[in-house]
Amino acid sequence: MRKTVKKGFAAWEFDEFENWLNQMADDGWALISVNASGAYEFEETEKGEYQIAMLMLDKKQSKAKNTEQIEFIEQTGSQFVGKIGDWIFFRRKSELGEFEIYSDNTSKINHLTRILNSYLSIVITSNILIILNTINCTITFFNSTDRITKVITLVGVLGLLVVDIVTLFAWGIKGIKKLSKKRKELKQQATLFE
Amino acid sequence: MPNQALTEAVYYILLSLTKPMHGYGIMQNVETLSNGRVKLAAGTLYGAINTLLDKGFIVALSSGADSRKKEYQITEKGKDVLLAEIARLRELLENGTNILGE
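Structure tokens for the assembled complex are given below, as produced in the milestone run.
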């Protein structure tokens, strides 16, 4: 039997999301495919038969290198489940032992830096777009003589500003803080232990 | 060669590659060598192999039909690094046992 669950995850919650996928696998629902729209398909298996791991590909890496990396990981007994954006998903039989993509601190720190940078670029880009739109609306406001247009653009400007403040402060900064905290903990660990 | 410590992963990878081996072979060999203590995850191993290739410490051997089973082997440069590391580890061990006793 199979079932599909639609679910999204925020960049800073990637490990919580991975835990959820593993919880599903523990309950006898192993991830079998993913869809770009955020639909996760599970197949019924023995409880805990599989373990799931995910990683974010390096944007600077060529497509050929991405394929090579996926094949390398597959070669070590895991199965490539699929790709959503830069995220790739694998599963491996639990009998092969604890399934992790990275076993050392340095790789884990590099992976987090990758996630943090990609998230930062999304936050910055979306903010620039909103600011450009706000400027555009403000110009329209001052240029128009029509009252209705003035009201509509004023509402538009205020609305965009509110959206911007909410996304930047509530969403952007929260995510960056969480990811930075995770990275800081790993770095601290790395100064003492390998 | 800079006087720097190798990571445990790199040390065991280089040691494994004194014989030609593919990725999964390295993982299994390292686990056996360390009595199950060191388990290299695939992503970590992949990153390490790429860096070692860049540095010229190992080479990829031209493989047969299946390019996915690429084999690697240590170079002379890699062996020098390994020998320097063994000397460094010996120093650590000797100082430790001298000061703390057996």
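Chain A touches chain B at residues 55, 69, 71-78, 97-98, 100-104, 106-107, 110-111, 194 (CB under 8 Å). Chain A has a mean pLDDT of 91. Further analysis is deferred to the final report.
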